[in-house]
Amino acid sequence: MSNDTVPAPAPVRPEPAGSAPPLGVGMVGYAFMGAAHSQGWRTVGRVFDLPLSPAMTAVCGRDRDAVSAAAGRLGWTSTETDWRDLITRDDVQLVDICTPGESHAEIAVAALEAGKHVLCEKPLANSVAEAEQMAAAAQEARKRGQLAMVGFNYRRTPALSFARRMVDEGRLGELRHVRVSYLQDWLVDPAFPLAWRLRREAAGSGALGDLGAHAIDIAQHLAGSPLAGVSAQTETFVTERPLPGDDSGALGPVTVDDAAIFNGRLVSGALASFEVSRVAAGKKNALRVELNGTLGSLEFDLERLNELHFHDHTDEARESGFRRILVTEADHPYLEAWWPPGHGLGYEHTFVHQARDLLHAIATGTDPEPSFADGLQVQRVLAAVEESAEKNSAYTTVAG
Length: 400
Ligand code: SOE
Hints:
By secondary structure, the protein is of the alpha/beta class. Helices cover 31% and strands 25% of the residues. The strands form three sheets. Strands 17-16-15-14-8-13-12-9-18 form a nine-stranded mixed beta sheet. A seven-stranded mixed beta sheet has the order 1-4-3-2-5-6-7, with helices on both faces. Alpha-L-sorbopyranose binds next to loops. The site of alpha-L-sorbopyranose has 4 residues, from loops.
């Protein structure tokens, strides 16, 4: 066990007098997602009025030197080299899991059994069986007052939060279509190495679990209805890639998809279509969402994340069309705590909002969304997509 204390970075702003009671956070993993979550924990108390004040108590990683460096860089007070030691610390009440999918289930279940609240990165797990185990552990823990949430952070862009509000208020009428594409291009180059995200045993699936999980969550969340079934195709275009850290030029097999396309029917009756890819040249992190209802339509593009385009179909035809809503007004979701109108937010703010919402849920004892049960349902959709693709696109019902 390490539990080394690293010098804490100087606070940006001193804690206000009479501040909220502390809640110790312990984070496992400190790469891309760990850095994003750290940004959330570092910032949330300096922007929002909170019922609990998160303390960045400890970060955990196997390599002692690397985790120590990460702690200093990201703002964590101490380190652990074994997550089993992290989850049993008395000064940690919330365990934040930012590791590859292969370890989510083991860490989350153990942390819940150790009496901690849990935040887990998406996708919830690498298989439906693991996700079921996690959802069951979360249900048990709920009886003891512990909460568990999945990190589908895009729900917390102000624009998509506002879109959800507009759907709830009936501004789109009855939804007919939900269309989501999520495209990246970092795997176009066949020389890109066989990283963990390209190995099924580590990542569960490829673009499907990585990007499709977000797309499915967003579609179902905005529509307020789950997918009933899907018809899908998946493809791995580059089937072998260079082994990381091996200069001999040896290749290893890619065991996940590069891309997936699928369509389906929501329980509400709306039709949904999805396209996800990590080989779409020129698309960096292009998440696009479109909703068409009987009274109007909405469009969102993560590359212009402060905007929402709304067409009100009840407008007089001669004046109707899509209008751009700049989602930066104080009464837009989350914006009351940020900048004056027009001073937009970015990707990292979704993690601040995620931390804010989870802290409020813990303080008030309310169920956070998305829950582990929601994460399990997304996992079932992912499994149905893979099953359909194996059966040459046969319509496959989502289990549940
Ligand atoms: C990598 O493709 C990735 O980091 C995803 O894993 C994240 O969930 C997404 O937000 C950005 O892209």
